[in-house]
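Sequence and structure are no longer studied apart. To make this concrete, we show below a single chain and its fold as C-alpha cells.
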Amino acid sequence: MSMIEKTFSSGDIIIKEGETGNTFFYLLEGNVAVYKNYGEDDQVQIRILEAGQYFGEMAIIETYPRSTSVVAEGDVKVQEIEAEALNEYFKDNPEKIILIMNQLGKRLKEMTADYDEAKKMLTDLRSAGSSKKYDGFFKQMVRQSIFTYTKNARIEKPSAEALREAAETVAKQDKDGNNVESYKKGTIIFKQGEVGKCMYIVHGGIVAIYNNYGQYGEIKLTELYPVACFGEMGMISEDARSATAVSESDETYVEIIKPEDLADLFKTCPAKVDMILKHLSYRLRSLTYDYFNACKEIYENSEK
C-alpha cells in the first residue's frame, strides 16, 4: 500500500491515541471527530473535521505516537497515504503542499492565541493570588483537552532531531538561485505590522528577529543561522508580521519562497519542502508543550 481509499462506518476508530503511525489521511467524504482519552471517563472531543481536511499528518512529518484518536461520525471515506509515499503524493498533487501548510498554520495560529491568553492569565493569577475569575478559562482548557491532562499526565518537550536532519540536507544545496537575495548588515528584510506573502530560508550570515525594532522597548527575540526558516506564517495566512527581521551581518543570503513557488520548489528540491513541514510541526509541538505547562500551573494554583 502507498495510497489507498478506505471507508469507515459511524463509531469506527480510524486513528488510536498512543499508537505509532506511518500513514496520514485525507478526508474525502463525511466527518470525523478528534478525541483525547477516547472511551475513557475523561474523554474530551477536541474538534470535528470535514471533507477536504487532513489528519494524522504530524506522525509522518515527525516520528511521534498519535496524540489523539480520530473516530468516524457517520459514513466516512478517506485516502490513506504512507509516509514513504509522501513525495509521490506531492508530485501528483502539488497543490496539496500549501493545503497541509495552511492546516498546520491555522493550528499554530489558534494555539498561539490560546497560549498568549494563558500567559496573561497566569501573570494575573501570580499577582492577584485568586482563581475565581478564571472559570471561563478553565472551560477553555477543557475544550482544548489540556485540562484532562493537568492532574496526572505530562507532555514531553519535542525533540528537534528530525528538524536538524532536514536542515542538514538543505544546507548541502547551493545558495545560488533566482530567489536568493544578499543583504548588508542592518537591512530590514520585513517590518513588524507589514502584510507578508512569502517566507524565507537563511543560506548565509545571520538574521535577527525583533519586537519594536528601533523603538522604545526593542527586544531581540532570536538570531537565525543557516538554514533556518522564518516568516512562514505570513506566507500561509497573509497576516501582518508579528516581528521585524533584520540582517545582522554583511553578505547575508536569504531565499524567498512564495506559495506559487512551492510546486516547482518540490520538483527541484523536495528536501526544502520537507524541512518547512518539519519546522511547522516542531513549532506546533513546542507551543503545545509551553501551553500545557502554563495551563498546568494555572490549575495547580487554583487547587491551593
Notes: The two ends are 53 Å apart (CA to CA).
